[in-house]
Amino acid sequence: MLLATEDGLFEFAGGEARRRCCRGVWLVDAARWRGSLYLCSPDLGVLNEDGEVVAEGQCWALREAEGKLLALMSGPKIVEVGDGVVATYEALAEERGWHFPLPGYGPHFTDLARVGGLYVASTEVGDLMAGPSLGAMSPRPLFEDQHVLAKAGEWLLVGTASGIYVTKDLASFEEANGAWGYVHGIVKCGGVYVAQTISPKPIWVSQDGLMWENLPLVLEEPTFGTTNIACAGDKLIYAVRDIHLIDLKDWHAERLGVKLPTVYKIADSTTSSLN
């Protein structure tokens, strides 16, 4: 399990976390691609496992699509690592008033998905985008601070700063029941959907992605911009600074005794491909 933190990359295995790279570098994602490790930094761009910058810019996520490793950059831009810009939406962003609240950083796509033959991109902060190719997406009727996309049956879930929106057709959207507040992570784990919010009780679970129940677990509260959940078998890994293993059947959280800098993304050792 790879952990992108405010102070470089750590790998968690065998009950221990060891530093892999990039002391002092703010990282928000990590992925293995064709045998190599790539890291995503809003301050530097995409780095290799030696800490060398291989694509300059403000990187916010790494995704696999069309057999390519893509970096979601401020602009927003979609960049193929090692081969340049795939799509740019800077003009549209300016026209429609997209923005990002952290000074010095620009609006960007946060996630990608495939829905009914269309590519879908979530935007921070701006329109949900969809289209037949990465370079031909257009706004859909949801303008929000969007963080994550997930599919639940026929539904697309959009995690935002005000909760989860759901849609079947990318034309009409409604709010899910529960998981209210700032959502920055949604995963499928142990047969249920799991979301995190900024709250002393951050974990919500759902059978269908539409109705959510808040687990009565008091944990370290996430902060803005952090994705602190990932699935490990049928259990949930939760990490802000302490790593916890959560059993979703009996709602029990075990602290594993591992301390880290603030975690911005928990990733497995493979590339995050499209949902």
What does this structure look like?
There is one protein chain. The strands form seven sheets. The protein has a four-stranded antiparallel β-sheet with strand order 3-2-1-28, with no helix packed on it. It has a four-stranded antiparallel β-sheet with strand order 4-5-6-7, with no helix packed on it. The longest helix has 7 residues. Strand 17 and strand 18 form a beta hairpin. The model has no long low-confidence stretch (mean pLDDT 96). It contains one helix and 28 strands. The chain has 275 residues and is mostly beta strands. It is globular and about 45 Å long. It has one domain: YVTN repeat-like/Quinoprotein amine dehydrogenase (Methylamine Dehydrogenase, Chain H, 7 Propeller), CATH 2.130.10.10.
Summarize this entry quickly.
By secondary structure, this protein is mainly beta.
**For the terminal residues, how far apart are their CA atoms?**
19 Å
Overall pLDDT level: 96
CATH architecture: 7 Propeller
Count, helices: 1
Radius of gyration based on Cα positions: 17 Å
List how many beta strands DSSP finds.
Answer: 28
CATH class: Mainly Beta
What is the assigned CATH homologous superfamily?
A: YVTN repeat-like/Quinoprotein amine dehydrogenase
What global shape is seen? globular
Elements, N to C (H/E): EEEEEEEEEEEHEEEEEEEEEEEEEEEEE
Strand order of the largest sheet: 3-2-1-28
Major sheet characteristics: 4 strands, antiparallel
| Fold-level CATH name | Methylamine Dehydrogenase, Chain H
Approximate helicity band: under 10%
Question: What is the strand content?
Answer: over 45%
